[in-house]
User: Which sequence fits this backbone?
């Protein structure tokens, strides 16, 4: 019997690893992608929206692309050109958008989908949680139409943009606090697992050897993304965002622990930290399944498999 598809909305700040996460999502028969929404993060909202459109054109994802929030709920944006380049998706040439962004905002498009879809929808945010929080604040009545949130963000043991905070959470801690306090089931792909989700140069070659247009671009994205990380001593590219998709399509390669996670919105040193209560000391009910480990080889194989999906798509 054919397995029921999971309806999802992909929300991100592409971003090389967002792009690879979306390549994986489109290649996964288990997922029904209802929309793609952009958020400010790795680059400005204009650039992340343009990148979202170009990724959809590259992978033949014919879904609505809606522009999200240009600013975090509180504070100024933080962008990451040192990691993703001035465009936010530097490296290989990409096709121009096949169609303009939706005339409505990401929050309006998300709300309409949740209102109309016959079953609850899974949100897959891989950038700052600004859009998701804005959706929950504007439409609390739609909370029950969100099945779960499989997000890339945070880290219960360390940060990457400050010693305490991971980039996506640090950009908008108030938004993250809204999401983690919402009561909606959360799968958290934080740095604890994503820094183990390393794709090595030999994996880049395996993907390139698949030999279709998408696989070439993914290999080029990995080469570019690895450039920043190699200088920091990483043996491979941590494809953070694809873990949030893998949690839906291949959960058996992951190790998760349910725990209460709090988001720090104050503090000179710890703003944006995600504090995981491993031992239940706070006496609060768990609000997230925190992913702590990954079968790296199986993850690399999953990306090679996803690249091969586009084989039969050649004209
Ligand atoms: O810290 C890693 C996260 O920040 C990833 O989602 C990457 O794309 C950036 O948004
Ligand atoms: Ca991202």
Assistant:
């Amino acid at each position: 019997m054919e397995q029921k598809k999971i309806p999802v909305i992909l929300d991100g700040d592409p971003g090389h690893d967002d792009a690879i996460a979306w390549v994986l999502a489109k290649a996964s028969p288990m997922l029904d992608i209802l929309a793609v929404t952009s958020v400010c993060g790795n680059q400005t909202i204009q650039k992340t929206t343009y990148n979202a459109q170009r990724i959809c054109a590259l992978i033949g994802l014919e879904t609505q692309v809606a522009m999200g929030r240009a600013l975090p709920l509180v504070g100024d944006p933080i962008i990451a050109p040192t990691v993703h380049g001035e465009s936010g998706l530097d490296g290989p040439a990409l096709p121009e958008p096949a169609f303009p962004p939706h005339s409505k905002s990401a929050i309006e498009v998300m709300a309409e989908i949740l209102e109309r879809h016959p079953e609850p929808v899974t949100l897959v945010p891989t950038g700052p949680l600004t859009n998701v929080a804005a959706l929950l604040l504007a439409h609390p009545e739609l909370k029950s139409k969100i099945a779960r949130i499989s997000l890339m963000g945070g880290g219960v043991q360390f940060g990457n943009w400050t010693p305490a905070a991971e980039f996506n959470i640090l950009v908008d801690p108030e938004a993250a606090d809204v999401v983690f306090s919402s009561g909606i089931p959360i799968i958290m792909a934080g740095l604890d697992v994503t820094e183990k989700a390393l794709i090595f140069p030999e994996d880049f070659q395996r993907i390139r050897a698949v030999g279709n247009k998408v696989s070439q671009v993914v290999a080029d994205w990995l080469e570019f993304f690895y450039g920043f990380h190699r200088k920091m001593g990483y043996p491979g590219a941590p494809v953070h965002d694809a873990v949030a998709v893998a949690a839906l399509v291949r959960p058996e390669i992951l190790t998760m622990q349910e725990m209460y996670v709090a988001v720090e919105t104050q503090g000179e040193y710890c703003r944006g930290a995600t504090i995981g209560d491993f031992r239940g000391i706070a006496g609060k009910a768990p609000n997230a399944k925190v992913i702590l480990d990954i079968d790296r080889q199986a993850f690399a194989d999953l990306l090679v498999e996803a690249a091969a999906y586009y084989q039969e798509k050649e004209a």
User: Anything to note?
Assistant: The chain has one domain: 6-314. The longest strand covers residues 254-263.
